[in-house]
Amino acid sequence: MSSRDLTIIGYLGVLAAGITLQVLAIRSPGRLPSLGRVLSHAMQTRTGRVGIIVAWAWIGLHFFAR
Amino acid sequence: MPISLSGEGRFTVVTHAAGEAAENPPATQTSAPPVSFGRAAVSGLRQPIVAILLLIALFTTVAGKPLDGFLMLVVATLLIFDAARSRRRSAAGNPGASLAAQPVASAPADQPRRGLRRLLATAAWLVAGATYCTVVGSFSRYSWPATASVLALGCLMIAIGWQGPIRSRPPLRGKPLRRAWLWGIVLVSGGLLELGSLLEQPHLTTDSYAHPTISALTDPLLASHPGRSAVLGGWLLTGWFLAGR
Prior knowledge:
With 66 residues, chain A is an all-alpha fold. Chain A contains 3 helices and no strands. Chain B has helices at 37-45, 48-62, 66-91, 115-138, 144-163, 174-178, 181-200, 214-222, 225-243, and strands at residues 3-5, 11-13.
């Protein structure tokens, strides 16, 4: 297995972990927070809110803007 | 909102954003010595998000993306000014002005709307989003039209986010709050993996086949108009999701 394969498996592993966590959170909301609830919590203050939206904007700029 | 009396005889507004207390000192209602703007600005610089934005500004500029860096720098500066202004107002005995320290005001409760009206509004947003994705997706990557379109939407969203949440959400408490770190592990793991791949590149602007970054892996998808439109659609939906938080 090449380094490239391992890297891609790593990305897929992180994605699978996120999906698993989200599914578990939806099935038992009293035990685990969903990503949406965690983001809502982090976005309660202006700095948290603006920081996360800037991160979102940065992703768009990173992929499309010069 | 509960109010507690601290050992120093100061009234402290207790909010449910306890996790923010360390980085954003609570407002006080007693008179305090005036805080110089420089000292107040330093308190803004201590906020982790501001520091992260400044680091991103530095590294993206070094990596040849000055526009990204400029946007990060502008927002970080605005947050520093906002925190400094809030700190000075708090020190002057106007606790209600501590905008950066307190949770942003909740939007008023949604008025009951007719289902048809809401459906039409949602359909209008979807049509506008699909049009945006189709038109902007037709522009080649890193062109000025694509840059201007993405930058304009990003700035608009930041301006909307600055005002506060569109709708109020129940706060995270108890066991779910204590287990939020699990999401931190997932997000940090992804970030470290991407950073590791980036550092394995022969140059910051040259991709590595053996250690591809997410950007490098998505290059084939973003080479076509449908691929760009699909990715823009995902980006827009994520923005919609965040705007509703």
